[in-house]
Structure formats: structure tokens, C-alpha cells
Amino acid sequence: MTGRLLLLRHGETEWSRTQRHTGRTDVPLTAHGRDLARAAGPIGARLLGGRSPALVLTSPRQRAADTAELAGLTDRRVDERLAEWDYGEYEGVTTNEIRAAVPGWTVWTHPCPGGETADQVQDRADAVLRDARGTLAAGDVVLVGHGHFSRVLTARWIGLPAVEGVRFAMDAPAWAVLGEERGVPQVAHANLPVDP
Fold first, then answer.
1. 12, 84, 91, 116: the active-site residue
2. b/e for 114-129, b at 16 or more Cβ within 10 A?
3. Which of 110, 114, 118, 188 is deepest in the core (most CB within 10 A)?
4. Mean pLDDT rounded to a whole number for the chain
5. Torsion sign (Cα): 65, 69, 70, 72
6. pTM (whole model) above 0.90
7. Does pLDDT of 92 surpass 80?
């Protein structure tokens, strides 16, 4: 493998700023989120070492596509599998609001009624990673997506179950770099911040 996998979380939206679970809903970037997405571009260019990525994939949500565009990742394809965790009935709801009815709830430890299970999200992540690994011989692959799903991708890259994504932060927007050392998958960088 010659390439690495770079993850970029979308810029700030009103819902991410107010900590509302945002899966299916297509919430636009805030003005600040657009500034952050622009600032992510030079960081990504440095991480890529001035080379063009072999492949750039984005979530089907506009906030991810806009982040990619503003960060200078113009040659990209949409991959439906990069969509955020489907929160079902918890879409648009904060963790504190959910915990009023379900004490101790987290997406990592409890179900999302009407949404995806951790196993379903893990299966999606595994499929994305399997396809990305097939491209890494040609160079770096960039995936532009969402917070929870990027954290699942990170966990799965190093062989942990999806629920162990809780151990990785992924702010809006931030970069993560996944690579290998002598054939062993590793997290080279996690939650690299963007400062506009």
C-alpha cells in the first residue's frame, strides 16, 4: 500500500453547532462553517504533500459536498455509503434531550429507534474501507463526510468494532489520517483542527 486514507468532516452547520443529531437532514453550512471548510484546504494540501489524491469521495449530503468544494477537492464522486449514521427518531434531537427519556443514552451504547444499528453502520464502513483499500496502491484517498461515521471508519481501520469510534474525536471540520506501519493499520493523525 502506498497511499493513505484521509478523512475530512464537513464544516459547521447550525445543527452541529447546537449539537443536534444530523443524519438524513440536509442542513447547510453556516458562514463560519464555510470559512472553516476553506481553511481545511491548505491543511489537506499539506497532508497530501502537494500531490493530487487518487480518489475523493463525499457523502451525499450537501454539507459534505460544499466542504469538499471549499477545501479545493473539486474532482470527486458521491458515495451514498458515506452518509452519516441514521438516527431515526432522534434526528434533530440533542443527546441531553434524548437522555431526559433514556438516561445515559449515547449513539455508541443504545439504539436509535427507526434508525441504524451500530452493526449496520459498521457494515457500511467496512464496505467503504474495502473499496478504498483497493485504490490506495494508486495514492491517497480522501473521504469527506460526517462526525460519527468518520469515527466508525477510524475504529474499523484499526480493527475495532464500530462502537469503539467513541474513542476518537472528529470536530467540524477536522482531518484524520489513516495509514499503515509495516502492514499494520494505524491512526497517523486524528482530529487535526482547522483554524480559519
1. 84
2. ebbebeebbebbeebb
3. 118
4. 97
5. positive
6. yes
7. yes
